[in-house]
Amino acid sequence: MVTVADMTGWAPVADAAGKVLGWMAPAQHDEPGLDYFEADRPRRNAAIVKARAAALYELAALAGDEAFSAGEVTDMARRAGLTGDQMDAAANAALVLWEIEQQRK
User: Fold this and answer.
1) Is the pTM of this model over 0.70?
2) Which of 5, 23, 4, 3 is nearest to 13 (CA)?
C-alpha cells in the first residue's frame, strides 16, 4: 500500500512558461519564514571575523614589538595581503596596548 502525503496548503513551483515543476510546502508553525541560508550566516560570519582578527592580532603584536621597525612591520603586512585599513586598525590596537603597558610602568 502506498501512503500519499497530505499536500493541503502546498503551493505549485513553476518555471517561466508556467509549467509546474513541483510543489512547495508551507512554512511550519515553529519556523515561520526560516531561510536556511540566512540561518547559517552567523556561523559563517563568525569564522570570517575570527580569521580577520587573528591576522590583525599578529600585526598588532609585531607593531608593538621593539625588535621590528615600522617599515618592516608595514612590509610584512603588505606581503601578507592586508589592506591599508587593516594595517591602520592593527596599528591603533598596538598603540592602545603600548599605552596600557606604559601606564603599568
Assistant:
1) no
2) 23
